[in-house]
Design brief:
With 457 residues, the protein is of the alpha+beta class. The chain folds into 3 domains: 46 residues, no CATH class; 139 residues, no CATH class; 205 residues, no CATH class. The strands form 5 sheets. It has a 5-stranded mixed β-sheet with strand order 7-6-5-9-8. The chain has a 5-stranded mixed β-sheet with strand order 11-15-14-10-16. Strands 1-2 form a two-stranded antiparallel sheet. The longest helix has 40 residues. The radius of gyration is 27 Å and the shape is elongated.
């Protein structure tokens, strides 16, 4: 009887948690543009005054994100010669230049709001601080306004929710976590905030950090950084910069070690959509197109065993919402296209990647189960123009084409993605692919120089 009651109350907790997460996702959808604009504005140079000498600054000045003050070059050197490390935490907000009530310029001062508190998480842990407010010293005004989400984002802080400022994370904290989770793939988010909690405890402060706010802020911050890289810096992650199109061949393989179960039935949306990982809707549309030409018929055989690569649906992974990730990479290790698998390693997703690569000019399509795929592919000539197919296995092909790019690197994600939502996993893998490509790009200059000069390390 007790077990039944426990299961009932656990179900109620999951429903409430899913509803709360859904509301947070809706808030981000509604206010995402506003937060994005505020983040872009934080990089702008706007007229201001020096905190120390009160000189009006129009072009050249220094914004210290640690002490949240604006200095002229001379005062910056003088002030920071005595504040080298900035281990203190100040009220986290820069002072706007314009009063929203009377529209006066440079009449605002920063004051703590006595009746409202907030949580600020930095690399030194959690701090419980007063919220910031701005008081106008114009005799005809005297208004006091609380700092908004836009003010905090401009000051270098990131909210867990776009409608509330109860929890803020410093951008340095977000950047540190971004690089930690990708350079040490087995690091879990809960353990990361536990480390911050331990640092808070050692300082005599409250160690509790809301994991929901942290995951939401991290996902949104990563996506905005991705948008800046793609839309502003015009970086192309899914292209090999060392090669001149059309390239000759590409290798495709999948990994099933990324367990993707929908944790707690949380209906979060995939933030990045299909900017790196092809959208599920596009894959499904392509699969339906193939099924009209070649309907599914039982199992496809490979050698003496029954191989299910050609089967669209399977009961083997029926408890998982996504079973793995299929990627195609060039010999230099650059991932060119990747997609989620909803069932087994089926030929329909493989053919989607082949068709995509054909549109880029690739001639040879290499695959480790090529013996049966050749027969499958010949039935689909109306969907995808032909690559040169040998229908045979070539020894050491995977070793030369870099199959380990997903088998060795992405399997480390299995320990920390088992109970994450699909949206969190989608965001994590998208960022990881971009970072992997950036690392490959950083190696290519020296590698190509060595090839040209005949010098190898």
């Amino acid at each position: 009887m007790n077990n039944i009651e426990d299961m009932y109350f656990d179900g109620l907790k999951i429903k409430k948690h899913a509803k709360r997460m859904g509301q947070i996702a809706d808030d981000w959808d509604e206010h995402w543009d506003e937060v994005f604009d505020a983040h872009i504005e934080s990089f702008a140079t706007i007229p201001s005054i020096c905190w120390n000498c009160k000189i009006f600054l129009t072009a050249s000045y220094i914004r210290c994100l640690c002490c949240a003050r604006t200095f002229c070059p001379h005062c910056d050197i003088q002030f920071h010669s005595w504040n080298v490390f900035h281990q203190h935490v100040a009220v986290p907000c820069f002072i706007p230049s314009l009063c929203q009530s009377c529209r006066s310029i440079n009449t605002l001062t920063l004051e703590p709001l006595k009746n409202k508190y907030m949580i600020v998480v930095t690399l030194l842990g959690r701090f419980d601080l007063n919220a910031a407010s701005f008081t106008c010293h114009n005799p005809a005004c005297g208004a006091t306004n609380e700092a908004s989400v836009r003010n905090y984002v401009n000051a270098g802080y990131w909210p867990g929710s776009p409608t509330r400022t109860c929890t803020l994370f410093t951008q340095t904290y977000m950047v540190h976590w971004f690089h930690t989770k990708h350079q040490i793939p087995s690091t879990a988010a809960m353990k990361y905030i536990e480390v911050s909690g331990k640092m808070s405890s050692e300082g005599g402060r409250n160690p509790v950090i809301n994991p929901v706010m942290f995951r939401t802020a991290s996902s949104q911050f990563s996506y905005i950084q991705h948008k800046i890289d793609v839309d502003v810096k015009l970086n192309e992650f899914m292209r090999c910069k060392a090669c001149v199109l059309p390239c000759k061949y590409c290798h495709f393989d999948v990994i099933f070690k990324l367990l993707k179960q929908l944790a707690g039935n949380i209906p979060l949306k995939k933030i990045a959509k299909d900017s790196v990982i092809v959208s599920d809707a596009k894959i499904q549309s392509y699969v339906e197109k193939i099924n009209k030409l070649k309907p599914q018929k039982g199992y496809d055989n490979c050698g003496n065993s029954t191989y299910k690569a050609g089967k669209e649906n399977t009961s083997r992974h029926r408890t998982q919402d996504e079973t793995g990730l299929g990627s195609a990479c060039y010999r230099h290790g650059v991932v060119l296209v990747t997609a989620n698998l909803k069932s087994e390693e089926n030929y329909r997703v493989v053919n989607f990647s082949q068709h995509f690569l054909w549109t880029l000019g690739y001639v040879y399509f290499c695959y480790d189960v090529i013996c049966n795929y050749g027969k499958f592919f010949k039935d689909l000539v109306k969907v995808s123009e032909g690559h040169k197919m040998h229908d045979e296995w070539m020894r050491m092909t995977c070793a030369s084409l870099g199959e380990e790019q997903e088998q060795k690197r992405y399997e480390k994600n299995a320990k920390k993605t088992y109970l994450e939502s699909l949206a969190d996993i989608h965001s994590r893998l998208q960022d990881d692919i971009g970072i992997h490509t950036a690392i490959v790009d950083s190696w290519q200059d020296s590698s190509l120089h060595q090839v040209r000069t005949g010098r190898f390390i």
